[in-house]
């Protein structure tokens, strides 16, 4: 039954102006029933339902509108409607998020049709995140593959795809995605991240090529523990193929990094043998030249160098090793004076020639004589003989007083002070006062200078104190 379209539209507008939205919706639905592809009428119904607060009905109506726009080729209009649906779900009906989860992939498709790659990637990334959160790995893999197709130069989608494939036990696919991600990271200079991706790859599968690449990245980075980490990776490669020149070259570098130069030279020797056996003459010559610089005196190195370049080794003369200089000849004897020769001859011949003999030991009586007794027995002192003038050819002789002190027995055994001074207490020697019993000692009686002959041992009275002690 045909209806009067203009009359129905006027009635719906009057109800909407009077805010009778429910009656207006009924009138618009009569028009949609007559023409189901009338997207404009459906859009008005959705707006009235939103004003009424019936959000589930409004979302369902808007979805139909978006589908119609997309089918009719109005991509921009469809995108606007789908965005409006997402806003309503986020603000008023979050419980409907799972039910209308297909809206975001449709948005991504529309973005892709319009060439809006960044918006499409953002929408697909949101979808992939939701699938991974819900552990829907199969669907997440499909979305990640689509992201990789849209943005193949970005390593992040490859990593997400690799992790999704790893969770589904697709090891070959995961290794391939990890390899692509590491290659892209190295191309943009993010080598530390590439090392982490390679470690993740080797955790899934032992790939010798990727293990060598990981070891090379460790050696280029040069951190304290990178040498040992590189050796761990190279050990796998060496066990699989011990004659691989790439592996041996990286092993030599690793040993140098950890400070084992001797092992590095041994590895290079093995490299030279492998190059010789595989008839790689240029490489063999290069390795032999390097070994000659590192260990020129090594027998194996010289033999390998002779095989690599015989014409150079024949003309090669190794530098002389550093040797100790020969001992210097003994210096000629220095002529000694006649007096020194005579003294050596006398001592060597066993003669007793006391140049400075100690004074004889005398027995101490234990009592001291007073200054009066010295005065009662005066003895004429012999007149002092004039001392000869010193000869210019001989050193100056000691003074007579110093010789008396060294030869006088009282210098060694007897007290240096006179009897009067010695009888006083130690504290009062410097502050001595004269008395009637003990007169003050004179300057000449303070020290006894009895002389003793060196040859005969007889004593001579001292000229000062006139004492003679045997």
How do the strands of the widest beta sheet line up side by side?
1-2
Regions with pLDDT < 50 over 5+ consecutive residues? 338-393, 410-424, 426-432, 442-456, 466-470
Would you tell me the overall average pLDDT?
76
Q: Sheet bearing the most strands, described? A: 2 strands, antiparallel
Strand content: under 5%
Order of helices and strands: HHHHHHHHHHHHHHHHHHHHHHHEE
Distance between the termini: 174 Å
The gross shape turns out to be: rod-shaped
Q: Could you state the oligomeric state of the chains shown? A: single chain
What is the CA-atom radius of gyration, in angstroms?
A: 60 Å
The total count of helices amounts to 23
Helix/strand-derived class? mainly alpha
**Total E-strand runs:** 2
Fraction of residues in H or I helices: 55-70%
């Amino acid at each position: 039954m045909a209806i009067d379209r203009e009359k129905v539209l006027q009635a719906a507008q009057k109800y909407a102006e009077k805010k009778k939205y429910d009656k207006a919706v009924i009138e618009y639905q009569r028009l949609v029933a007559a023409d189901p592809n009338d997207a404009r009428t459906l859009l008005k119904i959705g707006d009235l339902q939103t004003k009424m607060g019936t959000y589930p009905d409004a979302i369902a109506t808007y979805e139909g509108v978006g589908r119609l726009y997309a089918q009719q080729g109005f991509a921009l209009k469809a995108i606007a409607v789908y965005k409006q649906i997402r806003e309503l779900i986020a603000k008023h009906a979050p419980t409907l998020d799972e039910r209308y989860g297909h809206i975001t992939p449709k948005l991504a498709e529309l973005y892709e049709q319009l060439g809006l790659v960044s918006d499409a990637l953002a929408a697909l990334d949101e979808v992939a995140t939701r699938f991974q959160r819900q552990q829907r790995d199969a669907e997440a893999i499909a979305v990640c593959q689509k992201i990789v197709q849209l943005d193949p130069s970005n390593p992040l989608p490859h990593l997400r795809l690799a992790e999704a494939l790893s969770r589904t036990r697709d090891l070959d696919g995961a290794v391939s995605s990890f390899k692509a991600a590491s290659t892209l990271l190295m191309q943009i200079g993010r080598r530390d991240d590439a090392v982490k991706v390679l470690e993740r790859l080797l955790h899934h599968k032992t790939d010798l090529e990727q293990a060598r690449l990981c070891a090379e990245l460790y050696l280029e980075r040069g951190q304290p523990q990178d040498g040992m980490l590189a050796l761990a990776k190279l050990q796998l490669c060496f066990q699989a193929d011990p004659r691989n020149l790439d592996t041996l070259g990286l092993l030599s570098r690793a040993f140098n990094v950890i400070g084992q130069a001797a092992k590095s030279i041994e590895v290079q020797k093995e490299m030279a043998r492998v190059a010789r056996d595989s008839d790689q003459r240029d490489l063999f010559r290069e390795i032999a030249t390097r070994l000659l610089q590192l260990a020129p005196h090594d027998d194996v190195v010289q033999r390998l160098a002779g095989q690599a370049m015989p014409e150079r080794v024949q003309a090669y003369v190794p530098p002389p090793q550093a040797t100790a200089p020969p001992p210097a000849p003994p210096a000629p004897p220095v002529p000694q004076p006649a007096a020194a020769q005579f003294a050596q001859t006398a001592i060597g011949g066993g003669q007793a020639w006391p140049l400075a003999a100690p004074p004889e030991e005398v027995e101490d009586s234990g009592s001291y004589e007073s200054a009066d007794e010295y005065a009662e027995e005066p003895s004429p002192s012999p007149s002092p003989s004039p001392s000869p003038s010193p000869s210019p050819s001989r050193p100056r002789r000691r003074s007579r007083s110093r010789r008396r002190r060294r030869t006088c027995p009282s210098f060694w055994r007897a007290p240096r002070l006179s009897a009067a001074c010695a009888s006083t207490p130690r504290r009062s020697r410097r502050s001595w006062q004269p008395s009637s019993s003990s007169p003050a000692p004179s300057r000449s009686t303070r020290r006894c200078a009895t002389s003793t002959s060196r040859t005969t041992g007889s004593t001579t009275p001292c000229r000062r104190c006139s004492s003679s002690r045997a």
